[in-house]
Amino acid sequence: METVRPGWPGCILFITDKLKLDIGFDGPVQIRKVALPELVSSGISILYLSDFHFNRYSRHLANRLIKLVDAVQPDILLLGGDYADTRAGLMHFESFLAVTRGLATYAVAGNHDYFFGLARVRESLEKRGVRWLEKEGAVLHLNDRTVAIDGNCFQHTPADYRILCLHKPVRVPLTATYH
User: Which CA distances in Å does 28 have to 7, 9, 67, 70, 80?
Assistant: First the structure.
């Protein structure tokens, strides 16, 4: 396990044909590598980012995240909430969202987004083509596979792969259904 320097967001999940990186929350940020054979064989890459908590001092973090997304070039980008804590932070979040142009990008809310203003966050996301998954889901087709991405609800859509995008992964009875 590798500890990541402070200044990175709280959660990152990165799945490619080579590895899965999972950066946790609640304590020091760590990277754990786990292979997911089902996704590896399909050649689908996923990047999950969460807990930015952008504020007026977050320009550097926004730039680092833009470089990360550019370097990874995921097939799917999942955003897990807690995007901005201040109005100035929302500007940095919006500049980060420029990197999502052309990417299949999906987002759910975090607890801080409710405090900051869910309507403002959602508007920023949707204005840039990000699909809002709060109490919804989406289905996309990649590499001859069907991928269902659920927000905080379960869809009964047939799919080759199911992904549950949550802000804070907790024990959810339905998680056995997901990859």
Answer: 11, 11, 22, 25, 18
